[in-house]
Specification:
Two copies of one chain form a homodimer. By secondary structure, chain A is an alpha+beta fold. The first copy, chain A, contains nine helices and 14 strands. The model of chain A has no long low-confidence stretch (mean pLDDT about 95).
């Protein structure tokens, strides 16, 4: 009998990814890892800290709105921010293919230095490995980040409560659209720009208005659909979102329509979902809208104990289930 | 003019590696990173912590004495141990090639789980990326580790002092020999086993006898030669080692002789160098020899302010400079 192999669908961020992660974790006995948060949280004395890792294999490595270096810093910083952590320290590990341009390496390193400086996170440890020509694709970057979670903040994918409001911080689908547009060399009139950005300042502003935010999540691989499904499952709650309220730019709408793609499944790299008690919504939304990265923020739905899974209300008012991604629409998006 | 590219010699751990790292760090302004330690050290309140990252691209992924999973856990744990840290938390990120066997993935994951359990380090965050067939070689693993450095411990590659003794914890060259033997399918009578192992317990024992150890270093890529050169340079001291005292097994000696390799440049994955005041040497050595991983420990040399660089004394008593590795003898050793 031939042994099963890993295929591209295991990288979706959806159900097939979860299958593979289950296989990897089969021999692990670990409560923190099993929580499937964006970051692991631990305590040193009385100080709560968040720790997260991500490898970046995006293709192309330079794209409209960023590059693999900026993405590698923002992506991992955003993961610890989704636990409410303030980013402090970062590691940087590169796997380079023999023959990779030193000029491109310098450009990417510069982008990493600039982005980490903006965020105020210090890169304090690193590693570089070189593999032979054809044994990797140009450059892969891994970053891990450490941050401090302040007292009183308790954010988790499992904390969504009945009646909580759901806000998304801006237009969705931009990162995946930008990458696909460039990768396939589509000739559209306007180029879509990746939303690749760091969310630490936005989270900071939001937590000042409402330290009682229950869930934060950045809908990267698998898009809004994967993140909402994870939250519903972890919290053992239902989620209902309103299709008419989801912020999407005209460009992304048009791009997706032409290619038959669903923006709800498309990766974002500078957006977040906030789930919090209804009474804080107006204050949070007002603050978010004053900040560039939150100016298109919208209330998109509610958490309910009366349902399971994630449901989406259409223009006509009918409900359909928003299932998890199970096919890889676009590999190597991040 | 054609732009310069990255080549395999940039992965030696020697001078060419340092050139590449200099390029990557060109835009960074960071005191901790510039120290070039095995791990970055920072403080949270009064608690000193060490943080390190490493990517593993070893080929073959299963070898005599270990596999890429065991190596990925031990390698990064050893890096924080070299700052005197007790390992606590780890991240695990995998890049998988489309078509990689799920059975092999399960074996590697099991090895990771077993090794981390033995060490007592918890894997609390992870990531998995899949790239297309031919865009990576089977599996690459990145781990990052966090540990606590207890009060009074102050270990650094820059701390070697005039008159300090240098101990190496056991026979050198075993990891690189094992990998090369297997990769090239050499038919020797006896197989050389990689020394791949975690050094946390050995370091623990040593620090109990002598909390005043000045330098610890695990001589991985670039071998003993690269580590000693880094220490001499960071400490602005000279190092003199005695060729007759360096512990090498008969098998590794024979293997290196036949292939014309120098074991001083060959990677180890379960050995350490300790540099400490002379008065502690007998006590440290006695303790080390009682422990399996230290039973072949030897005093190999001394630190001196009267020289620069690293020097090796031959059987006849003559001195020659032990320069850094500058050619890649064997890529993808770790």
């Amino acid at each position: 009998m031939q042994s099963k192999t890993v295929d591209l669908s295991h990288g979706t961020g959806g159900d097939k990814s979860n299958e593979l992660i289950k296989l990897i974790k089969k021999n692990f006995d670990n409560k923190i890892l099993n929580k499937m948060e964006d970051a692991g949280v631990f305590a040193i004395g009385n100080t709560k800290m968040a720790f997260s890792t991500d490898s970046f294999v995006v293709d192309p490595i330079f794209f409209n709105g960023g590059d693999i270096g900026k993405l590698a810093v923002c992506g991992t910083v955003n993961d610890i921010c989704m636990m409410g952590a303030k980013p402090l320290f970062m590691s940087l590990a590169m796997i380079l293919e023999e023959g990779f341009s030193q000029n491109d390496l310098l450009k990417i390193s510069k982008s990493i230095a600039q982005t980490s400086k903006k965020i105020g996170i210090q890169i304090i440890t690193g590693d570089t490995k070189i593999v032979g020509k054809g044994k990797a694709d140009k450059i892969f970057i891994n970053t891990s980040a450490i941050g401090i979670v302040e007292d009183g903040i308790n954010i988790s994918a499992s904390n969504a409560c009945d009646g909580d409001d759901i806000i998304v911080s801006g237009n969705i689908g931009e990162h995946a659209s930008a990458i696909m547009m460039q990768r396939n060399n589509f000739k559209f009139k306007t180029k879509i720009k990746s939303d690749c950005n760091h969310l630490n300042e936005l989270v900071d502003i939001m937590l000042k208005v409402c330290p009682k935010i229950n869930v934060l999540r950045d809908p990267t691989r698998g898009g809004l659909a994967a993140s909402l499904n994870e939250i519903a499952q972890s919290s053992n709650m239902g989620i209902v979102i309103d299709n008419t309220q989801i912020p999407i730019s005209q460009q992304v709408k048009a791009f997706c329509k032409i290619l038959g793609l669903d923006p709800l499944y498309m990766a974002n790299e500078g957006k977040l979902i906030s789930i919090h008690p209804h009474r804080y919504t107006n204050a949070i939304l007002a603050k978010m809208k004053k900040y560039t990265l939150g100016k298109n923020a919208k209330i998109i739905g509610k958490v309910t104990k009366n349902k399971k899974d994630v449901w989406i209300k259409s223009e006509s008012g009918s409900l359909r289930r928003l299932i998890n991604a199970d096919l890889e629409q676009y590999p190597r998006i991040c």
